[in-house]
Amino acid sequence: MTNEKLLINNVKLEYSSSDEDVAYFEEVNGKVIFRTKNIGKTKITIKGIDGVNIFSEVIEIEVKEKREVNLITIADAITKPDDQKVYLEGIVGASLVNKTGFYLIDETGVIAVETTSDELSKIKLGNKVVIEGIKTHVGKTYDKNTNELTAVGQIVVKEAVLVVNEGGAHEYSTTSFKIGKTLKDFLNLNKLEDHSTEVYLITAKVIYEETNFYTRYSLEDNDQNRISVYSSSGKQLSFLDNYRDVEVEIEFTVVNWNGKNYVGSIIAIVVEGEKIVNNSNFK
Q1: Per residue in 77-129, pLDDT tens?
Q2: Which InterPro entries match (predicted)?
Q3: Is 3 a member of any domain?
Q4: Domain co-membership, 59 together with 137
Q5: Is residue 1's pLDDT more than 90?
Q6: Would 149 be classed as within a structural domain?
Q7: Boundary-marking domain end, from 133, 167, 201
Q8: DSSP characters for the chain?
Q9: What is the pTM of this model?
Q10: Residue ending a domain, choose from 101, 132, 167
């Protein structure tokens, strides 16, 4: 293995398992493939040899029995009644902002997933995962006098736990993403309607604002229509820093975590054909 940027030159990597009935390595078309076999624990040794020095690391892994779960699509989960347990499979597509979680994406839709820091540490952007959680709305609000619903809030899978992580660096599907709207269409959305699982492809300029009291990002179109991007600070959206005052293509959705109003949320931006995904929780 050679990597000039990391000053690595002609390092040979060797992999071994202390119990090949549990997990083992094999070479396929010149690539080393890691495979599992039977339930149990084994110690994996990774050894690096540069001709003079030998470095090694040992980690223990456990192969568990596969759980049989009733997987449904994200589109089906969105339409389920609230407070239902769901099992979903999809790609970890982008980070939530100011929340511990991510957007899960399959070919049928997109849904926000809230989890714990421990669970989030087990996954990376692009991983293909199966999760278990409770589909619900958060941020619902009611009139204090009449108790009538005034905002549906945000659709989310909360208390999510990882069932399986198949890993990988997959590109998420954009099949469910929509076109035909502009930034103006997202201003003053009806809070009694669900919009937080819809992703649209739009074009807008990235605007950064800094005062003595706050920093934040917004999006602006050619008619000076502007919508804020949800965050507690502009620092949470640092993936936008290099694109201030630049017009970009945006995979755009909205959120309403507190029931007040819908505000913007960005899955990714596209600049000269390069996709820059919101990685706020995955730095």
Answers
A1: 999 999 999 999 999 999 999 999 999 999 999 999 999 999 999 999 999 99
A2: BOBF_sf (IPR036700)
A3: no
A4: no
A5: no
A6: yes
A7: 167
A8: --BTTTTB-S-EEEEEES-TTTEEEEEETTEEEEEE-SSEEEEEEEEEE-SS-EEEEEEEEEE-PPPP--EE-HHHHHHSPTTEEEEEEEEEEEE-SSSSEEEEEETTEEEEEEE-HHHHTT--TT-EEEEEEEEEEES-EE-TTT--EEE--EEEEEEEEEEEEEE--PPPP-TT-B-S--GGGGTT--TTS--TT--EEEEEEEEEEE-SS-EEEEEE-TT--EEEBP-SSGGGGGGGGGGTT-EEEEEEEEE-SSSS--EEEEEEEEETTEEEE--TT--
A9: 0.82
A10: 167
Maximum CA pair distance of the chain? 78
Q: Rounded to 10 degrees, what is the CA torsion of 152, 159, 74, 96?
A: 70
Whichever domain contains 237, its CATH number is 2.40.50.500
Q: How many domains does the chain have?
A: 3
Question: Which CATH number characterizes residue 106's domain?
Answer: 2.40.50.200
- Is the same domain home to 273 and 221? yes
| CA pair distance 110, 252, nearest whole angstrom | 11
